Amino acid sequence: MPQFYETQIGQQRAALKKEEYVEACLLFQRRYGRLRYAPLKSGIALALCAAFVVNAFSNMSFSTTGEVLLQALATVLALAGFGWLAYYFFFGMRKKEAEWAGKNYDKSLLPGIEEEKIAYRDSFEVKNECETMTGFWSECGGCCRKGDLLVVNTAQNLSRNMLVFQRSAMAGGEYEKLCEHLKFVFVKRYQESR
Fold first, then answer.
1. pLDDT higher than 80, residue 140
2. What does pTM read for this prediction?
3. If you ran DSSP here, which 8-state letter would residue 27 be given?
4. Distances from the Cα of 138 to the Cαs of 16, 121, 125, in angstroms?
5. Largest CB tally within 10 Å, which of 16, 79, 150, 192?
């Protein structure tokens, strides 16, 4: 796939470990998938909870004991419901996604297989014993980096959604060189996570 004018930027030959795969999937989902708006959803649930409590206390009439108990019960149920939603959106979805990624790694052959990834200026190649894939960076949806993992969103143009580069599998300063190149390629679609 590389053109005659392209130079090789980085190369790695390694298999992903289960922990790395799970971390890469979580990073991918936080940036492009189901976990993208989880903190926002959690904040909305907490805001609704607070609004319901403020409304309940402001409308409380102390005329009869029954009304007060009914409003208190409704407030407690709303607190429990919205509190559970906030917890689920912030922690539960992440836990479920990590469990799914772990099961996917165990069931599928491709995530744990050793493969060779070669990054060129405009394109990339992925080769393993089952398949050979090629693509252009311009066809990819973006890139995110966290620590020793660099995850590229291949945007449905390959048989899988993400391409993972590991610092430990690349020689010398190739990982940093690749990160700098992808910062230039993706510009606003490149994200570094803490």
1. yes
2. 0.78
3. H
4. 25, 11, 14
5. 150
